[in-house]
Amino acid sequence: MTDIANINLDYNRPVKIADGVYWVGFYDEKSGLHPGSIRALIYQHYDPDLCGSIPNFEDIIGSDKLRVISEKTNNVFIRHYYVTSEMMSIDDMDFAYKFSSGRTLRFIKTPYAHSTGSFVTLDEQTVGAFQQRPLRQLQQPVGTLPQDGR
To answer: How far apart are CA 36 and CA 83, in angstroms?
Structure first.
């Protein structure tokens, strides 16, 4: 396995993670990436460290076709971040999002990992899982509950 701490990555360019999957942490018109082509933003929980940027993303993307996707209990909170895009629930989407290319993302609920509406996203093509909040390590053997209320 490659030690990612020793890889020299250029964060001013898209970073390929897997086939057809890129990390993009910048906007540059010369990159060939056009924000207006983004059709959906997926939010795996409703915390402000993620959702506080929704209005900024909506402005940058500038499309009336943009959708904000999350779990139905998350959407109760997400709507308070001044979201103007249509909000969709993974529950109403049969827990999947299919791209026009045929690629499919599956949504798997993890209600005890962070909050009731938390979920992870599985890319069926690469079998890669994406999560916006790292799952807390279990400090107790599986099947037992911590005694100190954690």
So the answer is: 17
